[in-house]
Amino acid sequence: MKRPFSAVVAAVMAFTALALPVTAEDAPEEEKKLPFDLLAPETVVITYLDGNDSPSTCEISYSQDNTMSEWSSALVTDYDETLEKLKQEYGYDDLFIVAQFDWSADDQEHWHVNDYWLTDGYDENGVQHLGDWAYRWENYCYETTNSEWIFRYMGDPDDPEDSRWFGRHEDGVDYDGWKDVLDPSLYTLVGEEGDRCAKLDFENHTFYVRVRYLVNAFDEDEDKEYQFVSDWSEAAAVGKDAEKVEVLKPGDVEAPDISNLQYAHYDFNGWPVVTYQLAVSEKLRKQVTQASGTQGNIWIEVEGRVQGTDEWINLQGDWIVTAGKMESKLLTLGEHEGVVVDGTPLELRARYWISQNDQDDFFTDWSNVIKFSSWDVKMGDVNSDNSVDLSDYSDLAKFLAEWAGYDQIINYRTADLNKNGVPDLEDLSILAKYFSEWSGYAETYFGE
Question: Is there a single domain that holds both residue 231 and residue 267?
Answer without folding.
Answer: no
